[in-house]
Structure formats: structure tokens, C-alpha cells
# Entry
Amino acid sequence: MNEVTDPTHPVAGWRGVVADAHLALAFLTRLPLPDTGAYVPGALARSMRLFPLAGAVIGLIGGAVFVVGHTLLPPLLAALLALLATLMVTGALHEDGLADTADGLGARGGREKRLEVMRDSRSGAYGVAALVFSVALRATALAAAPTALAGLGAMIAAAALSRATVPAIMQILPPARADGLGAGAGLPHAGIAATALVLGSIIAAIATGLGAAPAIVAALVGAGLIAWLARRCFGGFTGDILGAAQQLAEIAIFIALAGYWS
# Structure
């Protein structure tokens, strides 16, 4: 397909950047954004280059709650409230994917059975356990922040860098279903995936300084683990698996930063 007419190809100039940023925020959050008109199939894949920027906005909101809470409350309670704020902003989009993926991995049977279980909106024991550990691990690690500003930086870095892994996974894995996220959103090309990873790394470096190095490694390891499991157990990615990858990458980032702070 010609790059000029390909909706997944980034549009040059500030107009394209603003359009992609708007779509990334509209998809990843429940912020009250103005409607810009009809959705163009494939445009979501193009906007994934700015998923880290949308993540930084999410992290900034949660980080602001952590800063305020840190001055008034015990660190762990401040961390839990900060994570609650991000859940409200995103509508628990990624947490839902984590729960469904955990249930699918825990299901008995082959690939089709696992995918069928993932379509069930009800969360099973594996899904509930995954959510509990996700919140517990992130909150405990965030509570280890030596200062409120360090926690703010960690929230921004974790939210941005974890979402930077999403288009990379869509590059290395095929869609698990013909009617899945890839069919409707389009598949980001290598340039979009690379741009997202670079942007996420830059944001992490600004937010956490030298702590960005272990955070980046941790994000790649966490997302890579989900990618390996997805190929082995599902034959590719789904929207739920991408949400699980974001969650595992974010958990790994927080743990890496907690180790860096210690």
C-alpha cells in the first residue's frame, strides 16, 4: 500500500502529531476529549507512536495524587490512592486485559479453549489473583520511593514506558484472531514501534534519571515474557494480551525502580 494513502503511516507536521495524540488519549483513557469526527480504520495503529505520551499524562495524574497523599498519609496508602486514580482515568483497560489473559492461561485445553475463556467477561480465580498481585506489587514498590517527587517520576516513567511496548509486541506477534484488535486497529509498522520505544525511554529518562536504565530493561523483560507466553499458548496477540503486557511491564518497572532506590 502506498505510504501516502496508508492510514497507519504517520502524518507529517504538527497536525498529524496532534491528531495522533488525541486518538491515543481517547483510546487509552476516559478523559472528556472533544470529538474530532469519524474514526479512520487503521489510524489507531498510527497513533501508537504516541502511546508513551498518553501514558505520561496518565502517570502524571496518578503521580500528582501520590505527591499530595505522600504529604498527608503513609506511603503505602498514598501509592494505593495513586494507582486508584490511574484506574479511574483508564477505566481499568489494561487490568481487564490482565485478568482475561490470566484466566486464559489457567484454562485447561488447547489454544481455541483458551481464547474462548478470554472472551468471557467474568473473571475467574486466576484473573482475580492476577489483579490482586498487580496492584499489591506496584503499590508496594511505589511506596518505597524515597521522596514524593521520586514517586511522581516513577508513575510517569512506568505509565509511559509500559505503553511503549504495545506496538513492539504487535510487530513481533501475529494476531491470534482474524477479528481481533489487529483487524480493526491496523498493525503498526516497525517505524511506529521504534518511535514508541524511543519516546518512552526518553520520558523515563527525564522522569527518573539514572533509574531509567533498569526500568527500560525491566519493561522489555516483562513485555517479552508475555509475548513468549502469547506465542506459545495463544498463537499470537489479542487486545487482552496487549493489556497484560502493559501490566507486566509496569510491574517490572516499579520493581526495578524500587531496587534502584534501595
Observations:
- Residues 1-5 have pLDDT under 50 and may be disordered.
- DSSP finds twelve helices and no strands in the chain.
- The chain has one domain: 49-261.
- The CA atoms of residues 11 and 229 lie 34 Å apart.
